Backbone:
C-alpha cells in the first residue's frame, strides 16, 4: 500500500436520490495534503441479452439527461439499498425487457469511473430468456423502447453515436469474443 | 426525440476542481416533472499500450481514493479545458509512461456513466511506442508505478480485483479481439 492516501477529513456536500457527493482531504505518500472530490453511488447491474437465435442483442432506447440525448444501451439499473446484485439484475430484466433468464452468468465486475466515483457495476450474460409471467411495475420516470440489433447494426449504431456508453460497448465486445470462440 | 426530457430549471450545487454537480428539474414525456442529479466532467482519454513484442500490456498502479484501494489501469487522464483529446492522450502518455507513439488510433468514444455523469472518454491504441526525449512534469499529487502484464497475468489481476475498471477491461477485451483477428 505504498501509494495509499490517508484520509484526514470528509465533508458531505450533497445527499441526493441517486448520488451523494463528498469532499475529502487526504495526506499523500510524500506528506503533502490534497483534496479529493468523490461521488458515492449504490452500484448498478447490466445485462447482455441475446435473442434465442443468438444473432441479435436486446437494447433499450432511452433519454439520458446528463448527455442530452437518446441512447441505445443494454438493460441496466441501480442496485437498491441492501439488494443483492443478482436480485437487481433479475428485477431490471423483468422491468425493462419483460424477460426472465434461466441463468445469469457474471462476466465482469468493474468501477465505471474510479477517479471520482465509487459506482460499481456487475455485468451478466442472460441465458435461456423467456417472457415473464408477472410483470413488475416500471419506474414512473423512465420511458423505454426495446430494440433488437444484429452485430452489424450495432457497428452502425456505434458509428452513429447512438450506442455510446462503456457497459454497452463492453457487452458488444464480449459478444464478439464469444463468437470468435464458437468459431474456433 | 419522443423520449426527450424538457429542461425546466438548473441549480448549481457544487463547483470543484474535477467535477461540478447540478440538480435539474425536467418535464417528462407524460407531462410530469422529475429531478435529475448530474455530474459535469471535462472528459478523459485512455490508452491501450502494448510492448514492442505485443505480448504485454502497459498498466499504471495507483491509489484510487474513491474506492479506497490500489488499482492497475491503462494510462489515462483528464482533458484540460479546451484541449483536443489527441493532445491530452500524447501528454498523458508522456507523463505516465515516458513513451511517445508514432500513431494514436481512436478505437472507441464513450460515456462512462450516462445515468448521472457526462464524462466522455476517448480510448486509443498507441502504435510504435518509443521513449520520449523530453519528459513532461508529472502531477504533484499522483504517485504511479508502471507494470507490464501478459494476457494471462491480466486474467489473474482481474480475478484478484486489482484490474477493476471499465476502460481497462475494455482495453484488454479489445486486445483479445485483436489477437483473434491476427490468428484468423
Residues:
Amino acid at each position: 500500500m505504498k501509494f495509499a492516501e490517508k484520509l484526514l477529513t470528509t465533508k458531505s456536500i450533497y445527499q441526493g436520490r441517486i448520488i451523494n457527493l463528498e469532499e475529502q482531504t487526504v495526506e499523500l505518500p510524500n506528506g503533502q495534503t490534497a483534496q479529493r472530490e468523490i461521488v458515492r453511488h449504490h452500484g448498478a447491474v447490466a445485462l447482455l441479452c441475446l435473442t434465442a437465435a443468438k444473432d441479435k442483442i436486446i437494447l433499450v432506447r432511452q433519454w439520458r439527461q446528463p448527455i442530452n440525448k437518446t441512447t441505445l444501451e443494454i438493460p441496466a439499473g441501480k442496485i437498491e439499498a441492501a439488494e443483492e446484485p443478482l436480485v437487481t439484475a433479475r428485477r431490471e430484466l423483468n422491468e425493462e425487457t419483460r424477460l426472465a433468464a434461466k441463468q445469469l452468468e457474471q462476466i465482469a465486475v468493474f468501477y465505471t469511473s474510479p477517479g471520482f466515483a465509487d459506482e460499481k457495476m456487475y455485468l451478466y450474460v442472460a441465458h435461456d430468456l423467456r417472457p415473464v409471467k408477472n410483470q413488475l411495475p416500471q419506474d414512473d420516470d423512465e420511458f423505454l423502447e426495446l430494440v433488437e440489433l444484429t452485430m452489424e447494426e450495432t457497428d452502425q449504431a456505434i458509428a452513429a453515436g447512438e450506442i455510446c456508453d462503456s457497459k454497452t460497448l463492453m457487452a458488444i465486445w464480449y459478444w464478439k469474443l464469444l463468437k470468435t470462440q464458437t468459431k474456433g
Remarks:
- Residues 166-183 of chain A form the longest helix (18 residues).
- The longest strand of chain A covers residues 99-111.
- Chain A has a mean pLDDT of 95.
